[in-house]
Amino acid sequence: MMGASHRVVRSVRCALAGMALGLLTACASGPDANPRDPLEPFNRGMTDVNDAIDGAVLKPVATVYRDVAPDMVRTGVNNFFQNLGDVWSFINATLQLRPREAAENFLRFNVNTVFGVVGLFDVASDMGLERTRLDFGQTLGRWGVPSGPYLVLPFFGPSSIRDAAAFGIESRGDLVQGLTDISTRNSLYALRAVEVRANLLRASSMLEGAALDKYSFTRDFYLQRRQSQIDDLIDKGIGLKDADE
Q1: Could you tell me which residues are beta bridge partners of residue 150?
Q2: Phi-psi region of 150 (alpha: psi -120 to 50; beta: other; left: phi over 0)
Q3: Please, which residues bridge with residue 63 across strands?
Q4: pLDDT-derived band of residue 211, with 50, 70 and 90 as boundaries?
Q5: Phi and psi torsions of 89, nearest 5°
Q6: ∠ CA(201), CA(182), CA(70), 5° rounding?
Q7: pTM given for the model
Q8: What letters, b where the CB count within 10 A reaches 16 and e where it falls short, cover 73-91?
């Protein structure tokens, strides 16, 4: 156990050293660098740090959780956190001038909270109320805020300058963060992280087994997906030109 801990520490130290080297060479990415990823050396270093932490802690715990927790329990946990997310989706739909999605997410939260035992059961979906997941980064893009460079965040992974700023704002309105009992709040944070990671186990295993540059694949997939989400908002909105173009 002690030897494993030392290996983890060494891995993290090596990753941090790589990140520091990346920062020192950030302006030397070469002519073939992705223009949307000028921070690539730093981002690769941060990716190494995140991978080391994930491999040492989060992935093993998520694997045990997936294998041990009954499907009914996992479904309830997922429903609970999805229900909390409907609150921010309602707010963002309102800010994006999408009244139908705002109304649906508002009704979803109230129905599932009251009749679904604080969201453990997704009663709203059975009633035909659709969930539209919307975040503040999409809202900023909807109103013309450019994405800025690609950015890998500590622990949270792929993002952009715009999405990172939006995430900082959304985190302040997180209903879990509003809990006054510290142990309960931290337990819910941990449970949410494990549940999210457990849902990604299959996808991450397939990615790790593929013969490709995992960093570039993840970056390109994230940027294309976010661009598609913003384009979709523009198409459904009032015709603003996408600032990311």
Answers
A1: 160
A2: beta
A3: none
A4: low
A5: -65, -40
A6: 35
A7: 0.79
A8: ebebbbbbbbbbbbbbbbb
